[in-house]
Amino acid sequence: MTPKVTEMNENPASTPDTSTREKSTPGAEPVLAIRDLVVELPGPDGSPLRAIDGVDLTVGRGEIVGLAGESGSGKTMTALALLGLLPQGGTAAGQMLVEGDDVLKMTPRQVRDLRGNRVAMVFQDPMTSLHPMLSVGKQLTEHLRHHKKLDKRAANARAVELLATVRIPDPERALGRYPHQFSGGMRQRIAIAIALACDPALLLADEPTTALDVTVQAGILRLLDRLRRENGLSVLIITHDLGVMSALADRVSVMYAGRIVESGPRADVLREPRHPYTRGLLDALPHPDGGNAALVPIVGSPPKLGQAPSGCAFHPRCPHAVAGCAEERPNLLALTPTHAGACPIDPLAVTASKVGTP
Q1: Which domains does the chain have, with CATH numbers?
Q2: Where is the ABC transporter domain (predicted)?
């Protein structure tokens, strides 16, 4: 029986090095610019239900942006709209610009050409994107021969290069192996290699570490950070885990019930959250020092599709909600030139008043 290939260390550090990151050039055209995106899906009776409601989002060149929120918040639906993969009957309106070209104005063929070439996606479970009956080499080389029109020898050489880039041990031999012969972390690296095959400008990573143990998660995050630094890759990472954001993202947008409720630089959003939902996600995380402090879950559940309450969609679950929260839906308010939140109540001030801080 062939032994399973398991995860290896990306480098000695436990988390990506955020001190030397290349930032996107100010004023340069972003790789991705989403403006006022609205996505509607057909309900049980055929009437449209709004899944995404006026989302704005940008990703600069060489930048990693995190899109965070609970399941059902609209994170993955945003990515599927970009790839033209909405569920049957779904519609998208607004603008989704990839390097200046509006995906929502493209023909179906142009969108197909976009997928895998200029925009690629890595999913939570690599076994959903890796064919269990085809060798890793077959899957990589077919992708390269179809999209890049390479001959067999050139495709094999490029496949070895890609596996080496994502740190698969003995890449030449790995070409002949099958997905089940690799560990979960190695399969995710292979999925990333396939996504990188056509040198995309933008990588969409949908919960890329959720199914992996903590050590393997760290290796995948370091890999994504290295690919950004070395190749100028732009990444939109989609996750429910703000801990992943703290290790990787340059900027973070928090999504709830189809809307962005907070957005800004990683440090601002995670250290000084200004929306109660962001605060709730952070309070629900295990303490980084491994202490025994009790986790504080967010009460209730996110609204189902088409059932968002009036006013602020989070108000039924919000510990700071007042009567007006159920009446008027707040827009994003500029807190600083780069940090915005969709809540007129300052949770920091509320917390301070509760503990008697003057």
Answers
A1: 59-77+106-271 (3.40.50.300)
A2: 32-282
